[in-house]
Amino acid sequence: MAPKTRGKTGGHLRPRTPLARARLSVSLVLVLLTAGCSMFSSVSSALFGSGGPKPGQAGYVKGFLGDVVADEPQAALIGKQVLSEGGDAADAATAMAFSLAVTLPSRAGLGGGGACIAFIADRDTAAHGIPEAVVFVSPPVRSVAGGDRPAAVPMLPRGMFLLHARYGRLPIEPLLSKAEQLARAGVPVSRALAKDLALVAGPLFGDPAARATFGRGGVPLAEGQGLVQPDLAATLAELRVTGIGDMYQGVLAHRIEQASPLAGVPIGFADLRAAMPTLPTPVFVPYGDDRVAFPPTEGGLAAAAALISLRNQPADTQSAYARGLAAAGRWRAGGANSDQILNGELAMPATTPLYPASTTFATLDPDGNAVICAVTMNNLFGTGRTLPGLGFIAAASPAMVTPPLLAVGLAWNESRHAFHAEAGGSGQAGAGLAAAVALMDAIHSGQPMPSPVPDPGRANAIVCARYLPGSESSCYGAGDPREFGLAINGQPAQ
Asked: Are residues 107 and 224 in contact, defined by beta-carbon separation less than 8 angstroms?
């Protein structure tokens, strides 16, 4: 039997700057525009071949595509499409994040933030084959006062741009275009979004713009009904054409400053300009032959502490849950680093904080590169207020709510430079334990979700039982069986 064709598009993935990518694109366009038709055909053929799908077209990658998982099915389908077009894990994650801002705006949005762990299998990349944390938590607005719903500074666009700039393979413009098309043409309301709408329709519909977008005749949209967001599509188009930076220090930033007070959620230009994602050192936990990386966030510390507890007592999920929440509380209190928290004594808080909702998604490409992210609006539908003319909801200020548990983790083998497993946890206070249990179960069983994680947690996971690069046939993803997401496993036809 002939060996299976792996979905490689040539060479190792290396970080590149948007400027370098733009120069390459401009040079190619100039060559083609100044040449005749025959020249265009010969250059195209030389670069891309004369037959079959081209890079950036669905079906370009043959064989194993990789795996994607998301809490909302249409976003997962977008991730699969990007991998099929020759995109890598970072490309797929970027497209999925912006798509979730359209299809699951209750938990993801341009106004919100999040945290990711990215792993690039090539030891010669900027991260040297070691997972890297990308943290884009939305800070509270501080430069302006007023309004009745304190907002957070929008961070998802800048956070995903940083992830893509370091690790993306395809241009970012077509990735944004996918979300733009979903918003403009409309999408059927998923079961996940319909469930969230039913929970908060009363207060959400106090905002006329939200009521017009998410309701029909004052009744929340039901599963399968069309959700069309033309203002959001226009904002995504502006980001695609003028660049992400325009939202933070350009014309779009000034429009946000002017429109947000009209919705009672003022966001100042100074806040937008100052808001920057970070690349902090992850929290690392040894686990068997592997190491597991977590973002240095409340949720990352909760998941790390829970995994350490489970490593010693695998069946004692109650102790792991308590230790995870205690670690999150200690991190929030400040004055201690992650090592001190994870290795020291932890006191369970007297009461469990009311943590906001979040959502997670995961990607894996054929080369063993992987991304796992958690994003949030700091409340279901954030502030519940839509910025007039811009179409996105402002996230709730973390100064007014307990920051969410952005709980994601990724296991890899350092000597092999190979991916093993990744998991993201949601479910408010149960998010940290959910991520830890999902990782532990995936590593031990070789299956992405052999059994549900403890309530109230929910999880998404991808695992390669025999590592990747190495054995793509051992790679599978799964979403939480109690929820309404989708896992797509890109195994080649047998």
From this structure: no
How far apart CA 374 and CA 358 sit, in angstroms, is 7
The beta strand positions in 328-484, using DSSP E, are 359-364, 370-376, 407-413, 418-426, 458-468, 475-478
Estimate the share of the chain in helix, then strand, then coil, as percent rounded to the nearest 5: 40, 20, 40
Count of C-beta atoms within a 10 Å radius of residue 101: 31
Please state the φ and ψ torsions of residue 426, each to the nearest 5 degrees.
-130, -165
- Bridge partners, residue 488, by sequence: 68
Q: CA 278 from chain center: how many Å?
A: 15
Quick: pLDDT tens for 431-477: 999 999 999 999 999 999 999 999 999 999 999 999 999 899 999 99
Question: Read out DSSP for 171-223?
Answer: -HHHHHHHHHHHHHH-EEPPHHHHHHHHHHHHHHTTSHHHHHHHEETTEEPPT
CB 94 within 8 A of CB 168: yes
In the three-class reduction of DSSP (H, G, I as helix; E, B as strand; rest coil), residue 66 is classed as coil
**Rounded to the nearest 5 degrees, what angle is found at the Cα of 451, between the Cα atoms of 446 and 453?**
110
Handedness of CA 11, 17, 22, 24 (dihedral sign): negative
Q: How many CA atoms lie within 13 A of 49 on its CB side?
A: 7
Say how far apart CA 91 and CA 375 lie, in whole Å. Answer: 17
Q: Which residue has the tokens 């954030």?
A: 382
- Cβ distance 258 to 270 under 8 Å? no
Assign 287 to helix, strand or coil: strand
Which one, of 227, 255, 210, 216, lies nearest residue 100 by Cα? 227
> With bands split at pLDDT 50, 70 and 90, how would you rate the model's confidence at 126?
low
